[in-house]
Amino acid sequence: MADTLAALIAKRHPKSLEEYDQALREVIQEFMLLALWRGKFFNEAAFYGGTALRLFHGLDRFSEDLDFTLLGPKSDFYFDPWFSFIKKELAAQGLEVEIEKSKKAHNIQPAFLKTETKKALLIVGVAEKLAASVPLNKLIKVKFEADIEPPLGFGTENKLLLEPIPFSVKVLAPESLFAGKFHALLEREWKQHAKGRDWYDLVFFVRNDIPVKLDYLSEKLKAYHEKSKSLGYDPNIPLSNNKAISMLEQRIQQLDVESAKNEVYPFVEDKDQLSLWSQGFFLDIAHRVRFV
User: Which domains can be identified in the chain, with CATH numbers?
Assistant: First the structure.
């Protein structure tokens, strides 16, 4: 059964240990989604975030985590019922994994999958000489988390993933994905330690002419607006296109561009494009954002 795992890794043509590590993480993510589908997880949750963008919309950067939102609030939600599905799916590929849940933070319920890097490399046929340089305690880790009391108003669609086998994943619709990312740009990583991946994704959405679902962005801001208040956001006033762009412009003016570049750098293959990044560049991008 591990032949499937090895074949999926080989399709990515990794050469260095770093490339093998990334390929293993990506393929493990796909097997995890398959396991969740088998367990009917997508009857009550939808997939979003960077990995969803990469798998279903061609985002050209690596994404580490699997992010989900429940379709309706459920404060007592845990991933535990699906642990056995994930372990069984990966055990069929020869991978022994540990899964543990972590403490709930705000409305996010997280869990972590871990497996030994060296064993995984040997399973997929990496030469022992190359694998020997990997420390025994090095682990492949995949974080997966769910928003268990989500703001509603997002749209979803069922998207087909063909590997490891054809199966269906409920994913936030593109305009809802952009609304979630827009909200993250306004609320996440304030002033210092900018998350460059968010800003990279902003460019991706605009480049692919994907609009923002304004009413879902409004619901997100009503639920979580700790930092947006300083941008002039008032939850009692209906959110307009112009107000959303004005807040984004203010965030851009506060952005530490070099910090953002450094954060996203390891996740991007074509790093030359980052040389364009500046506050002026992002202000230009902001003026190209569309809303629906």
Answer: 2-172 (3.10.450.620), 174-286 (no CATH)
